[in-house]
Amino acid sequence: MSIDVSGVNKRYGDFVALQDINLTLPTGQLTALLGPSGGGKTTLLRIIAGLETADSGSVVIEGVEATRLPVQKRNVGFVFQHYAAFKHLSVARNVAFGLEIRKKPKAEIRAKVDELLQLVHLDAFADRLPSQLSGGQRQRMALARALAIEPSVLLLDEPFGALDAKVRKELRDWLRRLHDEVHVTTVFVTHDQEEALEVADEIVVVNEGRVEQVGSPDQLYDEPANDFVMGFLGEVTTLGGVRLRPHDVEVATVPGSGSLPGTVTRALRVGFEVRVTVDVAGQDALATVVMTRTHARALRLEPGAAVWLTPADGATAVAGSRPARPAEEAVAG
Amino acid sequence: MAETRRVTAGPATYVLRAFVIAYLVLLVAWPVVLVGTNTFENGTTAITEVFSDPDMVHALRLSAVAAVVATAVNTVFGVTISMLLVRKQFPGKRVLSALIDLPLSVSPIVVGLALMLVYGGRNGWLGPTIEGWGLQVVFATPGIVLATAFVSLPLVIREVVPVLHELGTEQEQAAQSLGASGWQTFWRITLPSIKWAVIYGVVLTLARSLGEFGAVKVVSGNVLGETRTATLAVEEKYLNFDQEGAYAVAFLLASVSVLAILVVFVLRARGTRHRAFERQS
Known about the structure:
heterodimer, A: 10 helices, B: about 280 residues, mainly alpha, globular
């Protein structure tokens, strides 16, 4: 096991940032710490790195008891959201930094830096200053810098958070491919469920200082442990006391067995899909249904139309206990 | 450098501009220029006379030595205190921060008297003890350095603290995660990042130290050829009706200050360009 976190607690004054965290992350995996802002995921990452100390509990990295080790001795690569580029050093010197500190021979450093710059596609920018790079390039430089010391684990704190949507998506794919090449145990923090679902081998959902669920993207999406995980990983709607995904609701224009009658109040088209809001009889909350535009047109779904709703076969659903909390809100919060 | 689009200038703007220019000319530029013209009224004789008088050369050298030593001490002390103020949490931090501004707000003559109370050879609180060790502080070079250092103490700190704040700690944390010790992080990351602020502070400290008069007057004893600094010599010459000599020394002091301001101006322009360049992209 590469990273072993057990019984970790952390408070800032009255605020409980982490509460009894127990986590085991296997070697060579790409793990996402997913959760809303202020949920404690960054604090957890910084405690693993040694940039923050836990009030209690222990951290073991690659079998080495690291709880009391300072960050310098943990041999972790850390990548910051805002790059933390050494502004006065060239790209090559940035990448060489950890090796220079380790007093490696000059030739070895040069070879290693060249190799890493090629890996992150920055070999043409070796002599530039970080200020002459774009955000995405700076983050790739920061990644090469962290990889240079051959860390036992690579920790990334919202690595793509400061980049625009397009670059973020590119870098995300690139990180996945890089990880398949380099195989270093990697943990990254994100509040973007799509990013986590797309890139990670395993996702740890952290909320309000606690681990809500640990599992593969499929497990989390198909078998959410609770309402929060379900709501955080995607849109949720309520139908007949059950919470399920809006695309898992089937719509019919005639009554059927077990279907719930309702009236369409709104049909909003977003690109190829249509989001239909339905006032279900005997239910306080409005139900949302997502379907393709073609499907909606075939059913003639316009405000005022009478419809009958049923959960689709095999739909992921949890009993609606907690009040509904749309995914968007959870992300923004 | 940020270009501000100029709004059409109304009459009020011109009046304001004329007022500011008149104020600066009457208060600063013209008097300083007059020192220069008075010095060179009879060609370079006044200047050559100063340099041929061994007592004057001694005074200039003493001023230079005191200024350089005080600046060196305040640079090391200033950067250390700045790091402490910005990067560490400790009780009494705000009191310390306020205390550091004291030398700027207290009259130098008060500083001189205060130093006498502590280091005075006969009645001082510490003075007799130190003199017992064979080191004379007051009425000697150490006292002059001490007074100069006291007066110019905040200048480096006030330059470095805001830059350290703006710099943040992420680069330092990154360096540490790459294995750098505290000392290595400081030398390789922090110091290069605050370099311009330190240089700026050093130049200001040097200029301020060279011009120090009040505090030095009290603690130096003002003995010709021994503890009389250049600023004290200016006063002495002026009071003794050697106006030409007074202007000559004053001119030399003023030139160093003007030179220092020029250096700062150039550095600042470079620094701004540097930062503006970094903000691009």
